[in-house]
Write a structure and sequence with these properties.
The complex is a heterodimer.
Chain A lengths: L1 H11 L11 H26 L4 E8 L2 E7 L1 H25 L8 H23 L3 H19 L6 H32 L5 H10 L3 H15 L8 H7 L2 H11 L1 H11 L6 H24 L4 H28 L3 H36 L10 H4 L1 H14 L6 H16 L5 H33 L19 H16 L1 H15 L4 H36 L3 E3 L19 H11 L1 H4 L1 E5 L14 E5 L2 H21 L7 H20 L4
Antiparallel strand pairs in A: 1-2, 4-5
Helix pairs in contact in A: 1-2, 2-3, 2-4, 3-4, 3-10, 3-14, 3-19, 4-5, 5-6, 6-7, 6-8, 6-9, 8-11, 9-10, 9-13, 10-14, 12-13, 12-18, 13-14, 13-18, 14-16, 14-17, 14-19, 14-20, 16-18, 16-19, 17-18, 17-19, 19-20, 20-21
Chain B lengths: L1 H25 L8 H10 L3 E3 L5 H20 L14 H22 L3 H32 L4 H10 L4 H19 L18 H4 L5 H24 L8 H25 L8 H22 L7
The chains are: A mainly alpha, B mainly alpha.
């Protein structure tokens, strides 16, 4: 029954091209409500009610029945996808309003059609087990997100970025395809995920895992496979960036997790590999984020950082299984998986609020902003909420997942052997540095955008966004606080998912009293803040409260906007420390000696991604350079081309004559 | 319960003792030990001035900062006495709670739109980020050494395990003392008595706070002193001692801690601003060495 409704919804999605421009978004809602209702029903059934996974035949595909299989891991991802798609679409209505004027009906319909298909394809990605249909739907997901990214196709830069994204996604597919083929051929098993178990049972899993990791890692954005991410997110419209960063890149993680479910031996080096890559991603991601001025690029680098945190959890979990420390395995996986949900929440919230700022000020450069909290107070508060949550501070959700990972690490220090302990030392030091840097970065970005005085007149005309765009803020904000204050409710289903990887999940039961204590402590903390507010109000009731300008050494001629700390100066002392890593270049003209009356001059700073430079830009420039040299043969004269064929024929003749081929 | 009472008692005395020591060494007449307390009481009787540039952030930040520090004090045990709140891996909550307070103070300083305060906020953000790993490696060392993972158990078992705990204890004591200097913005990271806004760190961040807000910010920094003093005293005071000896030695160590700060600040000059990051990273390095030493002691590294 549900499957028919589900199929009907998929067919309905095509009809969007017939709807008039103003009502298209409502059509999207209609289709999405059906999809979300049906798939969430399945997911909830699987996660909370039944104990086993279930299969539903979808259709006949190339002569064999195509099944959708939902186990607890798929169910979790279905719920995450549905929630973020729901908030994303609600936000899209307000965000797309200004575009209605200059985009044609077809363009709008195509954009929303792709939005729907991104949703549908993401759901199928987590539900298909057959390799061929998985790859096809994975491809549809990449394509629809590509079309979503190039929405503002009047900008040449956007198209270029979109194509770059598409190419990298295809390189990813090649790795995944290769991995499936090698596994299927070498073990003679079926061409599907389930076929992998046959291969892994008899072979060393590392090589095939590495191929899968490269393929899925490009989607997830692990460093050094991340270079599409900081470009695609800023180019895409904000609801798309929120969705892409919130859930789409997590499907790379899903792929890795799915492959891990089939591997049962030789896990130590796989775990170590994931952990090392993740630590690097976390540290470099957040360091690069600090030196960005484009708010969406900054958030994109934070996605890399958070993928790193998720990977640290998963990597430690895998190591935990390998060295037989159940508490590390369970809490590592639990922290990693909970962080997938958490990151989908606060990252989409941050992208939506940043998008609202962009919509109202038409700039993504944070150096042009400032003082927006007075113009857009609600957006500012929700941005702050997202910033606190992503920095992993209590009492919000980011803290809970990081706490689980920390607790797994500290509790297994005692039982680990030497090598494990050293690994743990690096991990918690790394995680602590990542946490500190995230605080550094988000104090910067929040202060520069929302606090102080406006830096340019772009801020002057900004107003608060329309009320429909607040709905996703409230929905996500509620979830962030709910997970932060009552983590116990969420840890039980997470435990069931962890059970797929680790047989014995009793550690989840052990951590529950601790989480309860955290809830109590957070509650006390909030009550304490409330009491202090009351006390201050009481104290200030009979006192005079005055307004006076900020202290500036009694100098009143300062330009309030310009004489403030900027994002560049805030990031500078960190940039000095991590010079090699963040690669900040300063562009300016030095003063000449004879220059008595200096002219007006400019100062610019850029940072460039060393991985992108060395792995993508430089090699491709090199190839292009040589290909250009080959162009001497393309003379445009027919005689030359005839000569080439003659030479070719002679060479072939000689080669056969001399028996060389 | 006992621990929080004593943390509050010592918080009242510590700033007075520091001031007394400094004036004694500087050859000035000494103010009463209670002078800082009188200053606070005076602040509580005053109104407040807010800059028109500031927003709601500036008003909520001091309260959240104060609450975070007071809340953190609840977790700190005192010798054998459990903290008010205690659970597994509570030191992570402790550290992140303090980070939340710092986050709020940093953005509140940025909220004033002053270049000076931005500078201070920026330095504070950098230093507290750099000191974070040192703290975590240190508690990791203790967790490894004592086979436990809550604040309370770390200390109780530190003393009861082996004689070798002295080695770990001394190194840990050194690191935690200097972490406390960074966290409390004292020498050699920051000079609280400097007169120039450009060279301040913590003081410049609260230039625009007044009245009630300033009072609770001051109390919060006293509490922070007392918290770190308590953590330090735990390395020495043992839970097996009779309770009155515990209390006396605890108070003595707290006073000794305050006097050390006073003496240090009277005789030493502070680091060059540019050298501070290196200096703080050094603390993490020492903590890592302690960790490796612990691996040897627990016979995970076998030397022969």
């Amino acid at each position: 029954m549900e499957i028919i409704i589900f199929k009907l919804a998929i067919i309905l999605s095509i009809l969007i091209f017939l709807i008039s421009r103003l009502y298209q978004i409502y059509w999207v809602y209609l289709v999405q409500i059906i999809i979300i209702a049906v798939s969430s029903l399945w997911a909830i059934q699987c996660l909370f009610i039944s104990d086993s996974s279930f299969e539903i035949p979808l259709m006949t595909f190339m002569g064999s029945p195509l099944l959708i299989v939902i186990d607890k891991l798929s169910a979790f991802f279905i719920l995450v996808i549905n929630f973020t798609m729901m908030t994303g679409s609600i936000y899209a209505k307000g965000y797309l309003k200004p575009y209605l004027e200059n985009k044609s009906k077809l363009e709008m319909a195509f954009h929303l059609f792709n939005l729907l298909w991104l949703h549908i394809s993401m759901l199928f990605v987590v539900m298909f087990r057959d390799a061929l249909s998985f790859l096809i739907i994975w491809e549809i997901m990449s394509l629809s997100s590509f079309f979503l990214v190039i929405f503002e196709n009047d900008k040449k830069e956007t198209i270029k970025i979109g194509i770059k994204y598409l190419i990298q996604m295809h390189i990813g597919v090649v790795f995944i395809l290769l991995a499936f083929i090698i596994a299927a051929v070498q073990s003679g098993s079926e061409f599907s995920f389930d076929g992998l178990s046959v291969y892994f049972a008899s072979h060393n899993p590392f090589f095939i895992f590495l191929l899968f990791f490269m393929g899925f890692g490009i989607k997830a954005g692990f460093i050094p496979l991340h270079s599409w991410l900081p470009h695609a997110h800023p180019a895409a419209p904000s609801h798309v960036s929120g969705i892409m960063s919130g859930v789409m890149i997590k499907l790379g993680i899903y792929g890795i997790l799915r492959v891990l479910t089939y591997i049962h031996h030789d896990l130590f080096y796989i775990g170590l590999f994931i952990l090392v890559i993740s630590l690097i991603s976390g540290l470099i991601g957040v360091s690069m984020a600090i030196v960005q001025h484009d708010v969406k690029k900054l958030l994109a680098y934070h996605s890399i950082e958070n993928i790193g945190i998720i990977g640290i959890g998963i990597g430690l979990g895998v190591i935990g299984i390998a060295v037989k420390i159940p508490i590390l395995a369970v809490l590592g996986f639990a922290g990693g998986i909970l962080h997938i949900l958490n990151h989908s929440l606060f990252k989409s919230l941050l992208f939506f609020t940043a998008g609202s700022v962009y919509k109202q000020t038409h700039t993504r450069n944070i150096e042009d902003l400032g003082g927006l909290i007075k113009k857009m107070p609600k957006t500012a508060i929700f941005f702050l909420l997202g910033a606190l949550a992503i920095s992993g501070l209590p009492p919000f959700n980011g803290f809970i997942s990081e706490f689980l990972i920390y607790s797994g690490m500290f509790k297994s220090l005692q039982v680990g052997d030497l090598f494990t302990d050293i690994v743990l030392l690096f991990s918690f030091t790394g995680l602590a540095i990542i946490g500190g840097l995230a605080v550094f970065c988000f104090t910067k970005v929040f202060s520069i955008i929302f606090l102080g005085n406006p830096r340019t007149e772009k801020v002057e005309h900004a107003t608060e966004i329309s009320s429909s765009m607040f709905i996703p803020y409230y929905m996500i904000g509620f979830m962030i606080i709910a997970i932060g204050l009552a983590p116990v409710i969420f840890i039980q289903p997470i435990g069931a998912i962890v059970n797929i990887f680790v047989g014995n999940t009793s550690a989840i039961e052990q951590v529950i009293p601790t989480l309860n204590n955290i809830s109590i402590s957070s509650a006390i903390f909030i009550v304490m803040i409330g009491i202090l507010f009351f006390l201050r109000a009481l104290q200030q009731k009979n006192q005079t409260i005055k307004q006076q300008a900020t202290w500036g050494c009694a100098y009143k001629g300062a330009n309030a906007g310009l004489h403030q700390y900027t994002a560049t100066s805030y990031a500078d002392n960190f940039g000095q420390l991590a010079k090699q890593l963040v690669n900040v270049k300063k562009d300016f003209k030095e003063f000449g000696k004879e220059e008595i009356f200096p002219e007006k001059r400019e100062f610019e700073t850029h940072s460039s991604d060393i991985f992108e430079n060395n792995l993508i830009t430089k090699p491709s420039d090199f190839v292009i350079k040589w290909f250009e040299k080959l162009a001497v043969f393309q003379t445009g004269k027919i005689q030359h081309y005839l000569l080439y064929s003659l030479v070719f024929l002679i060479v072939v003749f000689l080669l056969t004559f001399l028996n060389w081929i | 319960m006992l621990s929080i009472i004593f943390i509050i008692i010592s918080a009242i005395f510590i700033p007075g003792v520091i001031a007394k020591i400094k004036s004694k060494i500087g050859g000035r007449r000494m103010p009463s030990v209670f002078q800082p307390l009188f200053d606070i009481i005076r602040l509580f009787k005053k109104g407040a001035i807010y800059s028109p540039t500031t927003s709601i952030i500036f008003k909520i930040a001091p309260i959240i900062y104060f609450s975070s520090v007071l809340m953190a004090a609840f977790f700190v045990p005192m010798a054998g006495q459990q903290g008010l709140l205690s659970f597994d891996v509570d030191f992570v909550f402790f550290a992140y709670l303090l980070a939340l307070g710092k986050f709020m103070m940093i953005i509140s300083a940025m909220d004033t739109g002053s270049g000076f305060e931005g500078m201070g906020a920026n330095r504070e953000a950098l230093y507290s980020m750099l000191v974070e790993p040192a703290f975590f490696v240190l508690v990791g060392t203790l967790a490894l050494f004592t086979q436990n993972s809550s604040f309370q158990d770390l200390y109780v078992n530190l003393h009861t395990s082996t004689q070798l705990s002295i080695i770990i204890g001394i190194a840990a004591l050194y690191v935690i003392t200097y972490i406390s200097m960074v966290e409390n913005s004292r020498m050699p990271i920051d000079d609280p008595k400097t007169h120039l806004e450009l060279t301040m760190v913590h003081e410049v961040m609260i230039l625009d706070n007044s009245g009630f807000d300033l009072a609770i910010i001051h109390i919060a920094s006293w509490l922070k002193f007392a918290i770190y003093g308590t953590i330090i005293s735990n390395f020495v005071v043992q839970s097996s001692w009779p309770i009155y000896i515990q209390i006396v030695s605890y108070l003595l160590i707290q006073m000794g801690y305050a006097s050390t700060i006073g003496i240090l600040e009277s005789f030493s000059a502070r680091n060059k601003m540019g050298k501070n990051p290196q200096w703080i990273i050094m603390l993490s390095a020492i903590a890592v060495v302690t960790f490796l030493t612990t691996l040897i002691i627990t016979q995970k590294i076998i030397l022969n």
